[in-house]
Design a protein that fits this description.
alpha/beta, 6-stranded parallel sheet, 9 helices, 34% helix
Length: 260
Amino acid sequence: MGNVDISSPSNEQVKRLVRLRRRRHRDEEGIFVVEEERILRRALDAGHRPTEVYLCPDLRDPIEGLTHRTMSREAIDKASYRGTSTGLIALFPYFDRSLETLEWNGQSLFLVAEGVEKPGNLGAMLRVADAAGVAGLILVDTATDVFNPNAVRASTGAIFTVPVARAGLDETVELLRDRRIMSVAAHPGAGPDYWDLDMTGPVAIWVGAEADGLSTEARSQADALVSIPMRGAADSLNTSIAASLVLYESVRQRSQAKLS
């Protein structure tokens, strides 16, 4: 390998990239990290541009159209949150996460997640939301950071394609009611099977935390309660799987309604 811009794992820039693994430092800089080319390319396709790109010439070729700095394999492995880099680190600026950023129309489909705790589940829900074509994901009283490296990775790039808003319960309920969007709460044993509810109109599917599901207050504010039948010994599903089932039932109903 020839000369590189950053060769030492103890370089100050490497130390900065290591610090960005922690939420406090990401928040201070307003920057998050992408380490996979697939996610980077989906960001570019969605109109997002990285502020900085680091590449290891030993591990990969440059990406056309992106200015980058080079790093040695030792340095980029040290900077990677996974410990072993694929040869790419890109930094992106935070984007607005307020409810006002969401677009609303007469057939909007939203996913609302209350109290989600695991970054991987949050990323998986973003991936599902993208696949189902939702208008946005609203995080209610959720402390988990959407820019956590595990959430970014699990989203496979959907963090750049699905609008995400963070809000409190009362604020979210009020806005959905003002927009005449039906809130459907999915909770074990809470109501009829989810496929028995008409979800062809504007709807927001609510799912809860991994351990306890939706809070009592969230369920009490819902326009409809539905359950996912559980035939075996398990009493609940992973929150991203639960979201997938109910979202795709709405998608199925909407597709059938168009054909009718």
